[in-house]
Amino acid sequence: MSNSTTMALPALQSGSLESYIQAVSGINMLSADEERQLAEKLRADDDIESARRLVMSHLRFVVHIAKSYSGYGLPQADLVQEGNIGLMKAVKRFDPTVGVRLVSFAVHWIKAEIHEFVLKNWRIVKVATTKAQRKLFFNLRKAKKRLGWFTHDEVQTVARELGVSTKEVLQMEARMSSQDQAFDLSADDDENANFAPAQYLEDKTTDVEMDVINNDWDANATKRLYSALKTLDERSQHIIETRWLTDDKSTLQDLADQYEVSAERVRQIEKNAMKKLQSAMAA
C-alpha cells in the first residue's frame, strides 16, 4: 500500500456529497472473519485488493466521524476526504492478531487526519493558556452564543455572573475575536498547564464508534429480516408484517376475520413463521 492515498474510492466532490454518502452506505460491512482474512492477506502479501475491500467497507464510518466536525465552517467533503486518508493509513497498519476490530483501531487515525486538516485551515486565536482562562473561555463562549457582541451593560452582567473582573471579560472577548494567532499549543507549551482550542476539537457528547457499530448492526439485521421474510409463504408474510412491522398493527381477530379462520389458527401460523424467521436469520 505504498500509494495508499491514491487508492480508487467513490468520487467525492462538494457538489455530490449526498450521492457519495448514499453510495458508501450501500457497501456491505465485513464480518469479523472476512475482515481478519483480508487483513492477514494484506500483511502477508501486500495485497492491494484486500486493502481496497477493508477500506471500502469502512467509508461510511468516516462519514459518521466527519459529521462531528461540521461546526468548524469547513467543507464536509474535505473533512470526509481527510478522514479517508486516515482510514487508509489505519488499514496499512492494522494487525489482525491483536484481537480488535478495524473500526476500533481506525478511529484514532481518522480523527488524527481530520484534526490536522482543521488545524491548518481554521484560524482562531489561542484563547486560553491557563486553567482559569479556560474556564472563562467556555463560560464566555456560551454567553456570546446567547448575547452576541457585548454592550457595556452586558460585560458588567457577564463579569458578575462569572465572578471575574470586567477587564478579564474584555480581554477574553478580544482574544476570541482575533483571527491570526496560533490555534494549537506551541512546542514549548505545557499541555497540562496550558490550553488551546485544538484540545477540544471533537464532539465527545456521544461515542461515535459505538454509534456506527450499532447503526450498522441494526441496518444489517433489518436487511436479514426482510430477506428471511421472503422465505415465508404469502399468508405468513402478511401476518408477520401486519402484526409486527407496521405502525397500525392488526389483532389476531382482525386477521382471523380476513382469512376466515380462528384467532387460534392465526396465532399458530404466526408462531411457526417466527420460528422460520429465527432459523433463517441465524443461518
Question: Can you describe this structure?
Answer:
This protein has 13 helices and no strands. It has helices at 17-25, 32-45, 48-56, 59-67, 76-93, 102-121, 131-147, 152-162, 166-177, 208-229, 234-244, 252-259, 263-282. Residues 2-6, 123-129 and 178-203 have low confidence and may be disordered.
Count of helical segments?
13
Which residue ranges are poorly predicted, with pLDDT under 50 across at least 5 consecutive positions? 2-6, 123-129, 178-203
Q: How many individual β-strands?
A: 0
Percent in helix: 55-70%
Question: What structural class do you assign from the helix and strand content?
Answer: mainly alpha
User: Strand count, sense and closure of the main sheet?
Assistant: none
Can you give the mean pLDDT? 75
Oligomer designation: single chain
- Radius of gyration (CA) equals 27 Å
**CA(first)-CA(last) distance:** 35 Å
The best one-word shape is flat
Strand content: under 5%
| Helix and strand element order | HHHHHHHHHHHHH
Write the layout of secondary structure elements.
Elements: H1 17-25, H2 32-45, H3 48-56, H4 59-67, H5 76-93, H6 102-121, H7 131-147, H8 152-162, H9 166-177, H10 208-229, H11 234-244, H12 252-259, H13 263-282
Quick overview:
This protein has 283 residues and is an all-alpha fold. The protein contains 13 helices and no strands. It has helices at 17-25, 32-45, 48-56, 59-67, 76-93, 102-121, 131-147, 152-162, 166-177, 208-229, 234-244, 252-259, 263-282.
Features:
283 residues; mainly alpha; 13 helices; flat
